[in-house]
Write the C-alpha cells for this entry.
Amino acid sequence: MRVPICFDKTMRELKHLAIILDGNGRWAKKRGLPRTMGHVQGAKNVEKVCRLCHAKGIKYLTVYAFSTENWKRPEDEVKAIMGLLNQYLDSCIKTSKKDNMRVRLLGDREGLKEILPKIEELEEISKDNDGLQLQIAVNYGSRNEITRAVKDIAKEVKEGTLEIETIDEDLISNHLDTAGIPNPDIMVRTSGELRLSNYLLWQLAYSEFYFTSCAWPDFDEEELDKVIASYENRDRRFGGIKEE
Ligand code: FPP
C-alpha cells in the first residue's frame, strides 16, 4: 500500500538550517595569513549569516563552532577560537534586546568552565526573544550528547521517576541539547569535506544534505540562496513514497 504524504509548500519550508563552519584555516592559508585570521573572518561571517537567515525567514540556525575533538588543536588556536566566542557572546549580550535573537548552547557544559557564565547569561536574557533562534555548538559532539542523554534517562529510571516502557523517540529527543528545537531541514558543510564529523547525528536522520566547496569565510548571500533553491527542489519523503 502506498503511504500518502503531503508535498505542499509547508513541507519544504526551510525553517532550520544547520551549518558545519569549515575551511577557515584553508581560507587563511590561501591568503598567506595565520589560521587564526581565518577564524576571525569566520566569526564575522556568523554575524552576517545570522542577519541573512533572519531576512530570508529562516527561523532556526545551528552552527558548529567547536567540537569535542577540536581540543586536540594547538593551544594558541584553541585560545583564539575561545577568545572569538567570548567576544561574540559579549556583543550578543549587548545587542540582545535590539536584535531579538535567542541564543542557546549545544554541547558539554562541563568542559566550558571559562565561557560558561557568559553563555548562561546570554541564554537567560535572550530566552524570550522570538526572532532568529541561534544554536551555537561548542564543545559539542553528537556521541557525547547522546551519552549524556542516556545517563540522564538511566538516572531517572534508577530514581524511580521514569518507567522503562515510557522511553520512546520523543523522550530521547527531549533529553538532547536540542530539546524543543525542530530537527534541521538541511545541513550545509562548507569547504568541500564530505562528512558529518559527529554533528547532530540523531537530529539529522531525515535532513537534506548540501556540500559546497566554498570556504566558510566566503559563504555569502549568493551561496545561501543556492542552498535555499536546492532545498526547495528536494522531495522529502521521510521514508514514505511519493504518490504518482
Ligand atoms: C573549521 O575550520 C572551523 C572551526 C573549527 C572553528 C569555527 C569557529 C569560528 C568561526 C569562530 C567563532 C564562532 C562563532 C559562532 C562566533 P578549520 O579550522 O577546520 O578549517 P580548515 O579545515 O581549512 O583547516
The CA atoms of residues 24 and 38 lie 4 Å apart.
